[in-house]
Amino acid sequence: MASAHSRLVELSTIVSKNSAILDQYLSDNNIPQPNFDEHDSIWDKESPPDIQKARIALQDASTELIDLTTGSRKYLSKALNQDFTSFDTLYRLDIPHKIPVDDPEGITYTDLCKKLDIDVNAYALTRILKAAIVHHIFKEPSPGRIAHSAVSRLLVTDDLLFDWLGAAIEVVGSRAFLGRAITQFPAMDEANRSAASLNFGKQDGEYVSFYEYVARDPERAKRFGRGMSSFHTGEGYATRHLVEGFDWGSLAPGSLVVDVGGSHGDIDVAIARSFPGLKFVVQDLEGTIATAEETRKIIKDEGLNVEFAVHDFMTPQTLKGVKVFILRWILHNWPDKYCEKILSALIPAREPGSRVLVVDAVMPELGTLPNVTERDLRTMDLTMLGCFNAGDREVGRYRDLMEGVGLKFGGCVRPEGSRLSVIEGMCVVVSFPVPFPPGYPLI
Ligand SMILES: C[S@@+](CC[C@H](N)C(=O)[O-])C[C@H]1O[C@@H](n2cnc3c(N)ncnc32)[C@H](O)[C@@H]1O
Predict the structure, then answer these.
(1) Which residues are in the O-methyltransferase C-terminal domain (predicted)?
(2) ipTM reported for the complex surpasses 0.90
(3) What is the reported pTM?
């Protein structure tokens, strides 16, 4: 039943009323419908004031409709992509933690400045924060005061999300250097010649890769690991997709599952809870493994069969008898030649019946998904290109990569509602955590 007062309906009425005004204007003046094919849009020309008013009202209501139907967490990452500057500032100055979390009246801008660790230009900071407020990050309950919004409050109540923001700022900030990177390093095939390398600047005289940069600072490594954990709390990236998306029950008790580049092991904890008979080893770089204390505690408290081991996935796999290798969000971080190296490194561990699960987003053909979905995917793809000279590949490129190193390609499935095919020998399955609309052709 519809609500007595529905903001959504109210907004859609504004959209429809103003669309009708614009439509009438076009028809009265024999102007074709707006599209992106014409060289010259009608809206680039001057139109009467009431038509301009109708356009603004329509756009304002549509924007609010989109914002209100996005969800706070998702909104946060969307807003970060649109308004990087404010986020960068509020993270660096730790603004969310300086604003009372449960007081709708918030704090004055002046008192907020007094709480900061450094003496900043209050006028400049206020302007940066107001730019955040128009994106629903914080709100202004009364003139001169700032309070938390539902979105900004998350940054205080969810520590992992705050760490995600810290990591995401470095990631998204690097994307801005893409144009410089493609002109300075046009081949774009080296991890340490990326937009991120330019963003971070030379370290001890050398450009470094994203991961080298992260590993140089334990605090940053911890933030990145925790930021990854926070991703798993979002619906699109929930661990359950992999828990439900593969037939773990078909593995014999005691089967060894190795999560290559598994970070803090969130995926393994989730699978181990449902399949306690399996044995998991999470492999990652030393800095990441060293900061997985929260997962270690969960593993100990719940008695889960999950271990951590330092292993560089560019070097041959040392474990034997592995039934399943998980490579989740790994290949999209590496240029092709490194993906070949990572996949080849698994070959010595291959045995009949073992499998590799590559879990990554798969890029669709242009225009085959709803535009809002595709915008998200392509933004993420460019983020990966900026950070790593890598990205979310089309399914054919995954197949080429795998077959190129002599692995059998086992198909590409979406976890929800799909059963994975199990093929004798080294079977490679590409799945991905993004909730694609039903019916999207995967292979
Ligand atoms: C994008 S994260 C994905 C983490 C995890 N698989 C997940 O799905 O959340 C990539 C991981 O690869 C790890 N990594 C990067 N280079 C590595 C290397 N040479 N050997 C092992 N792990 C590495 C990083 O430390 C990080 O944890």
Answers:
(1) 208-406
(2) yes
(3) 0.79
